[in-house]
50S ribosomal protein L14
Amino acid sequence: MGTILKVVDNSGSKKVMCIQALKERKGARLGDKVVVSVKEALSGGKVKMEKGEKSKRVYYGVVVRAAMQRGRCDGSEVKFDDNAVVLINKQGEPIGTRVFGPNTHELRKKKHLKILSLAENIV
């Protein structure tokens, strides 16, 4: 909670802040859903932010990259340089039409296949 995350889709938002992780454990890992608040947004994007607003727009997101190491069942480990999310609607579909940067196979286990199909490359 309180972590600033990078948005890696073309929804119009640049940075968001995590409000809450939607699961039982403390914190969010790869493929987890989070509730986020928009901090920076581009004008003319799908995600809106009015002039003078600090952060009032609340959205859902899926963590696609995490700086924390995650072990895989084959013994390898995955770690990224930044924490990144893709914004989704309440039905779980991505708001943007493109996803930039690498994404992980762990999204397949969490049933986020639409995000994987929009991704540039899968690690």
